[in-house]
Amino acid sequence: MPILNRGPGPFPHLARLACKLSALAEDLQQIARGEHPTERVLREAPILMDWRVSLSPMPHLVGTVVGHPEIGDGRICRTSELVTFDPVSGYARTFSRFYRLGP
Known about the structure:
The longest helix has 21 residues, at about 10-30. The chain is of the alpha+beta class. The chain contains 2 helices and 6 strands. It has helices at about 10-30, 40-45; strands at about 45-55, 60-65, 75-80, 80-85, 90-95, 100.
């Protein structure tokens, strides 16, 4: 993911990206240890209904979203890049956030 920086800085967009990457890394480390997201984390996550995996241009999920902070309820959502998911446990972690997987 190349990012063009021009001039001497500062570059606040890099700080936001660093926070997102840090949160993603922490979540992946917990999942790698077998620690699935807590009930509280999933309760706060948007629900993705009637979801499916799409592989183009990169793996992501498509479905009807409820509870997303930026997308209205009932709208079709294309998530950011799918990093890991566990349909049996009912969650997915994309680049941006966790999703609860509905039916």
